[in-house]
What we know:
This protein is mainly beta. The chain contains 1 helix and 8 strands, in the order H-E-E-E-E-E-E-E-E. It has one domain. The strands form 2 sheets. Strands 1, 2, 3, 6, 7 and 8 form a 6-stranded antiparallel beta sheet that branches. The N and C termini lie far apart (47 Å).
Amino acid sequence: MPLNGMCIYWPGDTEADSYFESNHLRRRDDLMLRVDRSFERGHRTITLGLLPILRLQKDEIVDENNQTVLVDGSNQLTVNINIGYSYALNENVSLRFRYANPIVFRKSRPDGLTRYVVFYGGLTFRL
Length: 127
């Protein structure tokens, strides 16, 4: 949320008030650990996994008084569940799809990394 509950650049704009402050954001370090389990059957592979992401320190921003401040709630844990599907077209080419959804959120995300659903697909070639 904005530091003082309302956007300082567009006062009275309720839509702008809903964004996290990120003026001169200094994003801090993350620690990630992907845990996957794959199940293969013929040309098909299904993968289930967890991706916990821990922000190790609080992010920093510059507030309306031009002071650097730490963003409360930005050094917390995010956990994503994911499901993948892969189909081998032949020995060297496969189609891959992955769906991910967060189940634990950080309280504050000034970096804008708020995603409720991620889905992607791709074609993989082995050389």
